[in-house]
Design a protein that fits this description.
Layout (H helix, E strand, L loop, with lengths): L3 H15 L3 E7 L5 E3 L2 H8 L2 E9 L2 E7 L4 E6 L5 E5 L9 E7 L4 E5 L6 E5 L3 H4 L11 H9 L5 H6 L9 H11 L12 H20 L41 E5 L2 E5 L9
Parallel strand pairs: 2-9
Antiparallel strand pairs: 1-3, 1-7, 3-4, 4-5, 5-9, 6-8, 7-8, 10-11
Helix pairs in contact: 1-7, 4-7, 6-7
The structure holds zinc ion.
Length: 274
């Protein structure tokens, strides 16, 4: 599933192709991809809007549009959603559910084999992203630890909670906990101030590095706009490394299930009890 670094990479990859372009026609082939308004209204309303900026909030990709009325087009890729660009009149494959024809003739296509991806076209993006917690690369260590002190429960589910911080998913939660040397089942309320600071630094480290390398391609689902894989895959320390030696101590990485999510950690470096 694309997380913050993959969506950030997508926004950066798309900007040079799309900023300043006008959407002249939109076609929706799978109506449930459009969460708001209906598919027909979405296709009608997005026409003749110019893409002025492309940003990201949490795992949402955000197109800022200018037309008869300013509008915001938000996209959540969920499991397998992704965008690619094609010349006009390219055959549509079965997994392409939305096609935007642009004023320079190219087409922006949304492909989503699992069909869980969703789009919104709204005037106020807060109605979609208003409940998200802060951006993990923007919040200070002091604010992060103050937020954490208000929470209880296990560490890994908290990192996945988008109202706590926005944009971290299964891959980067496991990676951040490995760097911070914290067990995924540690109770949040048992963390010392030093451990919380370490976690904040670890999150910043893995996300910054993953963005620099263009994200992680664990399976064939995540591809960059140019078709390339994300470069962070070789840098993974815990995620998807079950039974392979910990890069710090050599102990085999262990996999457990936490909140129905496969969770990878080093039982030596990330002890539950101090
Ligand atoms: Zn280790």
């Amino acid at each position: 599933m694309p997380e913050l670094p993959e969506v950030e990479t997508l926004a950066r990859d798309l900007r040079p192709h799309l900023i300043g372009r006008t959407i002249v026609r939109a076609q929706v082939y799978w109506t449930r991809t459009i969460a708001f308004p209906g598919a027909r209204a979405f296709a009608q309303q997005i026409r003749q809007h110019q893409i002025q900026q492309i940003t990201r909030r949490g795992k949402y990709l955000i197109f800022h549009l200018h037309g008869t009325a300013p509008r915001v087009w938000l996209v959540h890729l969920r499991m397998t959603g992704g965008f690619y660009l094609t010349p006009p009149h390219t055959a549509r494959d079965a997994h392409t559910h939305v096609i935007m024809q642009l004023d320079d003739g190219t087409e922006l296509r949304f492909r989503d084999p699992r069909k869980f991806g969703r789009m919104w076209l709204v005037e106020n993006p807060q109605r979609v992203v208003g409940a998200l917690g802060p951006e993990p690369l923007e919040i200070s260590a002091a604010d992060f630890c103050a937020r954490l002190a208000q929470r209880r429960g296990r560490l890994k589910p908290l990192l996945l909670d988008q109202t706590f911080v926005a944009g971290i998913g299964n891959i980067y939660a496991d990676e951040a906990l490995w760097y911070a040397r914290l067990h995924p089942l540690r109770r949040v309320e048992s963390l010392t101030r030093a451990e919380c600071g370490r976690l904040h630094r670890a999150i910043r480290h893995v996300l910054t590095r993953a963005i620099a390398l263009g994200g992680t391609s664990i399976d064939v689902m995540y591809r960059r706009v140019n078709g390339m894989s994300g470069g962070f895959t070789e840098s993974l320390r815990a995620f998807d490394r079950e039974e392979r030696p910990c890069r710090r101590c050599g102990t085999p990485i262990q996999k457990i299930v936490v909140g129905q999510r496969g969770t990878h950690f080093c039982p030596t470096c990330q002890r539950l009890a101090p």
